[in-house]
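Prompt: May I have another protein with tokenized structure?
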Amino acid sequence: MAAIIHAIPLFSHLGRTELRAVAKLCYEETYAPEQVILKQLDEAQHLVAIVQGTARVTRDGRTIATVGPGDVIGEIALIDGLKRSAGVVAETEVDGLILHRKAFRDLLETSPSIAMKLLLAQTARLREADKKLAALG
């Protein structure tokens, strides 16, 4: 499972031992087409790293993005503890790796190196999103 986790951009900068630590906390889940993966405004209990399949991200009933292999969904609300800003529905069968909030928070608190690497990965994602927004206007 560590190899699968390493292929996910959020976790790709982790070393072998760090990947094994994350892998121990994850479990696999499969979602059928049209199954809700995450519901908008729910309390964040877990993140999902998509291994296979595609899903649509919706906000207020409108599709705002499509996600697929390598994408992580639900991590923002998982970090800040606020309600989910969007929902996610499987378009095809989706295989995902689940990481629960408590396990994730405990991992960040006990492993500063993992916390820093994930922070840098999230910052890179935010910068990329900022570039895309700038290109639109």
Remarks:
- The chain has a mean pLDDT of 91.
